Amino acid sequence: MVKRDEVARRAGVSAAVVSYVMNNGPRPVADATRQRVLAAVEELGYRPNGVARALRSRRTWSIGLVVPDNSNPFFAQLAHAIEDETFARGYSLLVGNASGDAARVESYLRTFQDRQVDGLIVVTNGPTEDLARTYEGRVPLVIVVDQPVRGLAASTVKVDNKEGARLATEHLVSHGFTRIACIAGPRDSAPGRERYEGWQTALRAAGLAAPDSLVRWAEFSLRGGAEAVRELLDSSPAPEAVFAATDLQAIGALRGTADAGVSVPDGLAIVGFDGIAEAEYTVPRLATVRQPVGLMGRRAVELLFRENGGDQVHEVFPLTLVSRGTCGCPER
What we know:
InterPro entries: HTH_LacI, Lambda_DNA-bd_dom_sf, Peripla_BP/Lac1_sug-bd_dom, Peripla_BP_I. The protein is of the alpha/beta class. The chain is built from twelve helices and twelve strands. The chain has three domains: 4-48, lambda repressor-like DNA-binding domains (434 Repressor (Amino-terminal Domain), Orthogonal Bundle); 62-159 and 293-317, Rossmann fold, CATH 3.40.50; 161-291 and 321-327, Response regulator (Rossmann fold, 3-Layer(aba) Sandwich), CATH 3.40.50. The strands form two sheets. Strands 2-1-3-4-5-11 form a six-stranded parallel sheet, sandwiched between helices. A six-stranded mixed sheet has the order 7-6-8-9-10-12, sandwiched between helices.
């Protein structure tokens, strides 16, 4: 194992200068000297002792991230944006996949805190009451997607779910549809409830009915969307259009309509929510309400490292309606 002293001898500098270069401080190093040190590091294959570095700096240079389901394209895209930002700041990202299990969320939180990560980001789409009990407050915490948790000192990053659902439903109303169904999320999901409320608000503002018969509470999955739309198509009278609380459900609904021999958008118009990349590749292309995933991921990391970390920040990001073939708009 190559030691720092060997790098110093090869570069013709002191061991302290090697330390300044590898740690970007605390003292400045002339550019020519820095290049000599980096060349020696590359030539000798020197790797700093991470444990010793953590002890000296009282940092582990790692961030813990918990996502609800890493097989969901939206959460995968969000995790990618968070990883890009943490990597750019010189940190490693430890990812825990909750798989929709609250006990696994608690387990990952305890593990990450025991490993003394420098910050925690929790992405949620279900109940969050247990977070207040599990979070020990030793490191900064940011919650993405869900609501602020009562009794928990944490900043949040989210979108206006109700407004996004209203935009999607209002767009379907503008096409002349009057029986617009809603494939909502699980009943215990805050984003799912908010998107359901946005659907209700848009229909009532247009003077249209929003009966329970037009609502299906389904899991955030392809299967959930497919099963929900089959039930809706079997109802009488069947809906003319559907707002789905996630793109994954909407893509599943496309499969369900195909299985039922119903064409989209002529037999049933569909609008989703999230703006995942896969929405570009359905036939027809999926109309959706897009979340600014990259901005949200970067901002979540920024909030962990802000200097005035004592004050909680609750940021709500705007959404964009993307009209495409499934809602009846012309394909571009």
